[in-house]
Design goal:
Elements (H helix, E strand, L loop, with lengths): L1 E9 L5 H17 L3 E17 L2 E13 L3 H11 L3 E9 L9 H6 L21 H7 L1
Antiparallel strand pairs: 1-3, 1-4, 2-3
């Protein structure tokens, strides 16, 4: 089975229930063709780069899945005949994305502070700071 990701944009005027219904329908199309949905990311309502079907905003949904090659055309057929789907794009990927971190892991350990290069270092006696070197240079 190949791995794919598909992003689609829904009409922003849809109620939440209808958005969930369309997501479940896409998952159903993938699973009906023998595919496995690995992850669904709802990006929410975002501004479009240009008007699509007289809309300036859209609800973005990204689906990562693995399945046979015939699952993609069937899913895209669903996108074409479903009016609230404004745009879509499906691509084959090298592998499934890593699992998102769990909330428990994020709370357990505070993220370490990463310092920028040169930050937090004192210039040694033999070294001049870069600004002084440019003034003298």
């Amino acid at each position: 089975m190949n791995t794919y990701e598909s992003i689609f944009i829904l009409n922003p005027d849809l109620p939440e229930e209808k958005v969930e219904e369309h997501i479940r329908a896409v998952e159903g199309v993938i699973e009906a063709r023998g595919g496995i949905v690995a992850q669904v990311e709802r990006w929410g309502k975002k501004r479009l780069a240009y008007e699509v079907k007289r809309q300036r905003y859209g609800v973005y949904v990204l689906v990562h899945f693995s399945g046979p090659p015939d699952a993609v055309p069937e899913m895209e057929r669903y996108f074409k005949i479903t009016e609230p789907v404004m745009k879509y794009l499906s691509v084959r990927t090298e592998g499934l994305p890593p699992a998102p971190p769990k909330a428990e892991e994020e709370q357990a350990g505070a993220p370490e502070k990463v310092e920028a290069p040169g930050e937090g270092k004192e210039a040694s006696e033999g070294e001049k700071p870069q600004e002084e070197a440019q003034k003298n240079g």
